[in-house]
Amino acid sequence: MKLHLQQPLSYTHILENPKQCDQSFDMLLRKLEESPIGSDGCMVCSATMTDEICILNCHSVAFREPEETEPSLIAIPMGTYLFSQLTFPPQTGTALIPLLNRFVLSGDSQQEDEMQFFVRVYKERESDFAIQLIAAIQTTTE
Questions:
Q1: For residue 113, what are the domain limits?
Q2: Which among 40, 47, 49, 106 has the fewest CB atoms less than 10 Å away?
Q3: What is the rounded CA–CA span in Å between residue 62 and residue 24?
Q4: What integer is the mean pLDDT of 104-113?
Q5: pTM for this predicted structure
């Protein structure tokens, strides 16, 4: 599915980043558990394709709470994206990794040796998160 962002999704707080996607996801879930409903988190990740495996790395982890007015530190820019919302959100980072691999290896994303993508986690209700996988097809700088 394609997603067209008409404005950037901004994040105002950066978390310490363990570099491993599974550990970063677990840390982000813990932070959002204690945050108010409507809080939004993002992992900026990359996937490096080799002949045999896909190597996943997390470069930064950020979040914002609803109604925040602080300046943006990280943003998902405006643009067109390959988009997938996970039907059954994983409860751990270990369970997320096969889903990330499947997303990275799907569709148009296989054209490059390295690909940047985002894992967006939105707190819909107490202990209920929407998890979206987002990879750029075309972005626009402001």
A1: 2-140
A2: 106
A3: 10
A4: 66
A5: 0.90
Count of structural domains, the chain: 1
Q: What is the CATH number of the domain that holds 57?
A: 3.20.80
Closest CA to 99 of 43, 51, 33, 32: 43
Query: From CA 104, how far away is CA 107, in angstroms rounded?
Result: 8
In contact, 99 and 90? CB cutoff 8 Å: yes
Residue from 85, 78, 48, 62 nearest 11 by CA: 62
Do the beta carbons of residue 23 and residue 71 sit within 8 Å? no
Distance CA 104, CA 82 (A): 10
38-81 pLDDT, tens per residue?
999 999 999 998 877 889 999 999 999 998 888 899 999 999 99
Output b/e per residue, 13-25; b: 16+ Cβ within 10 A: bebebeeebbebb
